Protein backbone atom coordinates (compact mmCIF):
# COMPACT_ATOMS: atom_id res chain seq x y z
CA UNK A 1 0.00 0.00 0.00
CA UNK A 2 1.44 3.33 -1.11
CA UNK A 3 0.76 6.28 1.18
CA UNK A 4 0.31 9.47 -0.78
CA UNK A 5 1.99 12.57 0.56
CA UNK A 6 -0.12 15.60 1.26
CA UNK A 7 0.61 18.97 -0.33
CA UNK A 8 1.96 20.26 2.98
CA UNK A 9 4.36 17.32 3.31
CA UNK A 10 5.65 17.87 -0.24
CA UNK A 11 6.18 21.59 0.41
CA UNK A 12 7.98 20.84 3.67
CA UNK A 13 10.22 18.25 1.99
CA UNK A 14 11.17 20.70 -0.78
CA UNK A 15 11.87 23.42 1.76
CA UNK A 16 13.83 21.05 4.00
CA UNK A 17 16.03 19.72 1.20
CA UNK A 18 16.61 23.23 -0.17
CA UNK A 19 17.57 24.55 3.24
CA UNK A 20 19.94 21.69 4.01
CA UNK A 21 21.52 21.92 0.55
CA UNK A 22 22.06 25.66 0.97
CA UNK A 23 23.49 25.17 4.45
CA UNK A 24 25.84 22.47 3.20
CA UNK A 25 27.00 24.69 0.35
CA UNK A 26 27.65 27.63 2.69
CA UNK A 27 29.66 25.36 4.95
CA UNK A 28 31.71 23.80 2.17
CA UNK A 29 32.30 26.86 -0.03
CA UNK A 30 34.95 28.65 2.14
CA UNK A 31 37.13 25.54 1.99
CA UNK A 32 36.51 25.21 -1.75
CA UNK A 33 37.38 28.89 -2.26
CA UNK A 34 40.72 28.40 -0.48
CA UNK A 35 41.38 25.42 -2.79
CA UNK A 36 40.66 27.58 -5.85
CA UNK A 37 43.06 30.30 -4.69
CA UNK A 38 45.77 27.74 -3.96
CA UNK A 39 45.49 26.27 -7.48
CA UNK A 40 45.35 29.61 -9.28
CA UNK A 41 48.22 31.82 -10.40
CA UNK A 42 48.99 34.17 -7.52
CA UNK A 43 49.08 37.43 -9.45
CA UNK A 44 46.01 36.49 -11.43
CA UNK A 45 44.16 35.95 -8.14
CA UNK A 46 44.83 39.57 -7.21
CA UNK A 47 42.49 40.64 -10.02
CA UNK A 48 39.54 39.05 -8.21
CA UNK A 49 36.59 37.38 -9.84
CA UNK A 50 37.48 33.83 -8.74
CA UNK A 51 34.43 32.00 -7.47
CA UNK A 52 34.03 28.43 -8.71
CA UNK A 53 37.15 27.37 -10.62
CA UNK A 54 40.78 28.49 -11.16
CA UNK A 55 41.25 30.96 -13.98
CA UNK A 56 44.92 30.10 -14.51
CA UNK A 57 45.52 26.62 -13.12
CA UNK A 58 48.97 26.04 -11.62
CA UNK A 59 50.72 23.89 -9.03
CA UNK A 60 53.47 26.44 -8.54
CA UNK A 61 52.10 27.52 -5.15
CA UNK A 62 52.41 23.98 -3.79
CA UNK A 63 55.85 23.53 -5.34
CA UNK A 64 57.09 26.72 -3.72
CA UNK A 65 55.58 25.77 -0.38
CA UNK A 66 57.64 22.56 -0.28
CA UNK A 67 60.88 24.07 -1.59
CA UNK A 68 62.01 25.24 1.84
CA UNK A 69 63.43 22.34 3.93
CA UNK A 70 61.94 23.88 7.06
CA UNK A 71 58.45 23.12 5.73
CA UNK A 72 59.27 19.46 5.12
CA UNK A 73 60.83 19.24 8.58
CA UNK A 74 57.72 20.82 10.11
CA UNK A 75 55.51 18.21 8.47
CA UNK A 76 57.75 15.41 9.69
CA UNK A 77 57.37 16.79 13.23
CA UNK A 78 53.59 16.95 12.84
CA UNK A 79 53.40 13.42 11.42
CA UNK A 80 55.57 12.04 14.22
CA UNK A 81 53.60 13.68 17.02
CA UNK A 82 50.28 12.74 15.45
CA UNK A 83 51.11 9.07 14.84
CA UNK A 84 53.13 8.38 17.99
CA UNK A 85 51.14 10.69 20.24
CA UNK A 86 47.78 9.37 19.09
CA UNK A 87 48.87 5.74 19.46
CA UNK A 88 50.15 6.23 23.01
CA UNK A 89 47.19 8.38 24.02
CA UNK A 90 44.65 5.87 22.74
CA UNK A 91 46.47 2.94 24.35
CA UNK A 92 46.80 4.58 27.78
CA UNK A 93 43.27 5.99 27.66
CA UNK A 94 41.82 2.59 26.81
CA UNK A 95 43.83 0.89 29.56
CA UNK A 96 42.78 3.50 32.13
CA UNK A 97 39.15 3.28 31.05
CA UNK A 98 39.26 -0.51 31.24
CA UNK A 99 40.70 -0.43 34.75
CA UNK A 100 38.21 2.16 36.03
CA UNK A 101 35.34 0.13 34.58
CA UNK A 102 36.18 -2.65 37.04
CA UNK A 103 33.99 -2.23 40.11
CA UNK A 104 36.40 -4.37 42.16
CA UNK A 105 39.40 -2.11 41.43
CA UNK A 106 41.02 -1.11 44.76
CA UNK A 107 40.88 2.66 45.28
CA UNK A 108 38.70 3.16 42.22
CA UNK A 109 36.91 6.19 43.66
CA UNK A 110 40.13 7.84 44.82
CA UNK A 111 41.79 7.35 41.43
CA UNK A 112 38.79 8.78 39.60
CA UNK A 113 38.71 11.78 41.94
CA UNK A 114 42.44 12.35 41.42
CA UNK A 115 42.03 12.43 37.66
CA UNK A 116 39.00 14.71 37.96
CA UNK A 117 40.67 17.06 40.46
CA UNK A 118 43.64 17.69 38.17
CA UNK A 119 41.29 18.84 35.39
CA UNK A 120 39.80 21.56 37.63
CA UNK A 121 42.97 23.29 38.83
CA UNK A 122 46.06 24.25 36.88
CA UNK A 123 49.33 25.80 37.94
CA UNK A 124 49.33 28.13 34.94
CA UNK A 125 51.49 28.51 31.87
CA UNK A 126 54.63 29.76 33.60
CA UNK A 127 54.88 26.92 36.15
CA UNK A 128 54.04 24.47 33.36
CA UNK A 129 56.84 25.87 31.19
CA UNK A 130 59.28 25.70 34.11
CA UNK A 131 58.35 22.07 34.64
CA UNK A 132 58.85 21.26 30.96
CA UNK A 133 62.22 23.01 30.96
CA UNK A 134 63.36 21.22 34.12
CA UNK A 135 62.47 17.92 32.44
CA UNK A 136 64.46 19.02 29.36
CA UNK A 137 61.45 18.63 27.13
CA UNK A 138 61.55 22.11 25.60
CA UNK A 139 64.41 21.01 23.37
CA UNK A 140 62.98 17.58 22.57
CA UNK A 141 60.34 16.36 20.16
CA UNK A 142 58.73 14.47 23.05
CA UNK A 143 57.34 17.74 24.38
CA UNK A 144 54.46 17.18 21.95
CA UNK A 145 53.70 13.70 23.29
CA UNK A 146 54.57 13.07 26.95
CA UNK A 147 52.72 15.97 28.66
CA UNK A 148 49.48 15.12 26.83
CA UNK A 149 49.24 11.35 27.17
CA UNK A 150 45.68 11.33 28.46
CA UNK A 151 42.53 13.38 28.81
CA UNK A 152 40.11 12.70 31.63
CA UNK A 153 37.07 13.24 29.40
CA UNK A 154 38.20 10.51 27.01
CA UNK A 155 38.95 8.15 29.90
CA UNK A 156 35.41 8.61 31.19
CA UNK A 157 34.01 7.89 27.73
CA UNK A 158 36.07 4.70 27.48
CA UNK A 159 35.08 3.65 31.00
CA UNK A 160 31.41 4.17 30.18
CA UNK A 161 31.73 2.14 27.01
CA UNK A 162 33.49 -0.74 28.73
CA UNK A 163 30.73 -0.81 31.34
CA UNK A 164 28.19 -1.51 28.58
CA UNK A 165 29.92 -4.79 27.67
CA UNK A 166 28.09 -7.70 29.40
CA UNK A 167 29.87 -9.03 32.47
CA UNK A 168 29.14 -12.59 31.30
CA UNK A 169 31.85 -12.18 28.65
CA UNK A 170 34.40 -11.45 31.37
CA UNK A 171 33.25 -14.37 33.47
CA UNK A 172 33.54 -16.76 30.53
CA UNK A 173 37.05 -15.51 29.78
CA UNK A 174 38.10 -15.94 33.42
CA UNK A 175 36.78 -19.50 33.43
CA UNK A 176 38.88 -20.21 30.32
CA UNK A 177 41.98 -18.94 32.18
CA UNK A 178 42.28 -15.61 30.40
CA UNK A 179 44.46 -13.00 32.15
CA UNK A 180 43.64 -9.30 32.35
CA UNK A 181 45.96 -8.15 29.54
CA UNK A 182 44.87 -10.95 27.23
CA UNK A 183 41.25 -10.22 28.08
CA UNK A 184 41.74 -6.56 27.26
CA UNK A 185 43.54 -7.00 23.93
CA UNK A 186 41.70 -10.09 22.71
CA UNK A 187 38.15 -9.34 23.88
CA UNK A 188 37.42 -5.84 25.15
CA UNK A 189 39.62 -3.92 22.72
CA UNK A 190 38.06 -5.48 19.56
CA UNK A 191 34.57 -5.01 21.00
CA UNK A 192 35.26 -1.31 21.59
CA UNK A 193 36.44 -0.40 18.09
CA UNK A 194 33.73 2.28 17.59
CA UNK A 195 34.87 4.08 20.73
CA UNK A 196 38.54 3.52 19.89
CA UNK A 197 37.94 5.16 16.51
CA UNK A 198 36.20 8.06 18.24
CA UNK A 199 38.98 8.91 20.66
CA UNK A 200 41.57 8.25 17.94
CA UNK A 201 39.92 11.00 15.93
CA UNK A 202 39.84 13.27 18.98
CA UNK A 203 43.54 12.80 19.72
CA UNK A 204 44.65 12.79 16.09
CA UNK A 205 42.94 16.07 15.22
CA UNK A 206 44.19 17.61 18.45
CA UNK A 207 47.81 16.67 17.77
CA UNK A 208 47.73 17.69 14.11
CA UNK A 209 46.08 21.08 14.66
CA UNK A 210 47.94 22.08 17.83
CA UNK A 211 50.10 25.15 17.27
CA UNK A 212 50.23 26.50 20.83
CA UNK A 213 52.97 24.25 22.21
CA UNK A 214 55.34 24.89 19.33
CA UNK A 215 54.71 28.64 19.46
CA UNK A 216 55.22 29.23 23.20
CA UNK A 217 57.24 26.34 24.61
CA UNK A 218 59.69 25.54 21.80
CA UNK A 219 62.42 27.90 20.62
CA UNK A 220 64.23 25.64 18.13
CA UNK A 221 62.85 26.34 14.65
CA UNK A 222 63.64 22.75 13.64
CA UNK A 223 61.13 21.51 16.25
CA UNK A 224 58.23 23.65 15.08
CA UNK A 225 55.26 21.64 13.77
CA UNK A 226 53.37 22.55 10.63
CA UNK A 227 50.41 24.03 12.51
CA UNK A 228 52.69 26.48 14.35
CA UNK A 229 54.31 27.66 11.15
CA UNK A 230 50.92 28.03 9.48
CA UNK A 231 49.63 30.07 12.42
CA UNK A 232 52.61 32.41 12.24
CA UNK A 233 52.26 32.82 8.49
CA UNK A 234 48.56 33.63 8.73
CA UNK A 235 49.05 36.03 11.64
CA UNK A 236 51.52 38.22 9.76
CA UNK A 237 50.08 40.89 7.51
CA UNK A 238 53.45 41.41 5.86
CA UNK A 239 54.79 38.18 4.36
CA UNK A 240 58.36 39.39 4.29
CA UNK A 241 58.21 40.18 8.00
CA UNK A 242 56.84 36.70 8.68
CA UNK A 243 59.63 35.03 6.74
CA UNK A 244 62.24 37.06 8.59
CA UNK A 245 60.68 36.22 11.93
CA UNK A 246 60.62 32.49 11.25
CA UNK A 247 63.86 32.52 9.18
CA UNK A 248 62.13 30.81 6.29
CA UNK A 249 63.69 31.47 2.92
CA UNK A 250 60.95 30.68 0.46
CA UNK A 251 62.82 32.39 -2.40
CA UNK A 252 59.53 33.46 -3.91
CA UNK A 253 59.47 33.80 -7.66
CA UNK A 254 57.25 36.86 -7.89
CA UNK A 255 56.46 36.17 -11.50
CA UNK A 256 54.57 33.02 -10.59
CA UNK A 257 53.28 33.20 -7.03
CA UNK A 258 52.36 35.62 -4.26
CA UNK A 259 52.43 35.48 -0.44
CA UNK A 260 48.64 35.15 -0.30
CA UNK A 261 48.67 32.23 -2.74
CA UNK A 262 51.35 30.52 -0.65
CA UNK A 263 49.23 30.97 2.45
CA UNK A 264 46.28 29.31 0.75
CA UNK A 265 48.44 26.41 -0.48
CA UNK A 266 49.93 25.84 2.96
CA UNK A 267 46.48 26.00 4.54
CA UNK A 268 45.26 23.28 2.17
CA UNK A 269 48.32 21.14 2.85
CA UNK A 270 47.73 21.20 6.60
CA UNK A 271 43.97 20.62 6.29
CA UNK A 272 43.76 17.82 3.72
CA UNK A 273 45.24 14.98 5.84
CA UNK A 274 42.48 15.27 8.46
CA UNK A 275 39.81 15.63 5.78
CA UNK A 276 41.05 12.45 4.11
CA UNK A 277 41.00 10.45 7.35
CA UNK A 278 37.67 11.62 8.75
CA UNK A 279 35.32 9.94 6.18
CA UNK A 280 36.74 6.53 7.07
CA UNK A 281 36.13 7.10 10.80
CA UNK A 282 32.82 8.95 10.57
CA UNK A 283 30.65 5.84 10.96
CA UNK A 284 32.53 4.69 14.05
CA UNK A 285 32.73 8.25 15.38
CA UNK A 286 28.96 8.75 15.40
CA UNK A 287 28.24 5.30 16.82
CA UNK A 288 30.96 5.54 19.45
CA UNK A 289 30.12 8.99 20.75
CA UNK A 290 26.43 8.13 21.03
CA UNK A 291 27.05 4.92 22.98
CA UNK A 292 29.76 6.43 25.16
CA UNK A 293 27.65 9.42 26.16
CA UNK A 294 24.18 7.88 26.54
CA UNK A 295 24.66 4.45 28.06
CA UNK A 296 25.86 4.28 31.63
Automatic annotation (TrEMBL):
Native source species: Vallitalea pronyensis
Pfam name, any one: BPD_transp_1
Chief location category: membrane
InterPro entries found in the cross-reference section: MetI-like, MetI-like_sf
Name of the protein in question: Carbohydrate ABC transporter permease
Signal peptide limits: none
Keyword Transmembrane helix tagged: yes
PROSITE patterns assigned to the protein according to its UniProt record, in alphabetical order: ABC_TM1
Amino acid sequence: MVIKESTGEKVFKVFNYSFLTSLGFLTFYPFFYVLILSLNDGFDSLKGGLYFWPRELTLQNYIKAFEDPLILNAFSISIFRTVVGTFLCVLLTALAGYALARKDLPGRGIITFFFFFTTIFSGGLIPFFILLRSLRLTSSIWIYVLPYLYQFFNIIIMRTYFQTIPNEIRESAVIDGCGELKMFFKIFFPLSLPMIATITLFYGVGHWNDWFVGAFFVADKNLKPAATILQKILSETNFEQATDTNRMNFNINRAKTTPEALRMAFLMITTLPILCVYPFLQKYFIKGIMIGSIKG
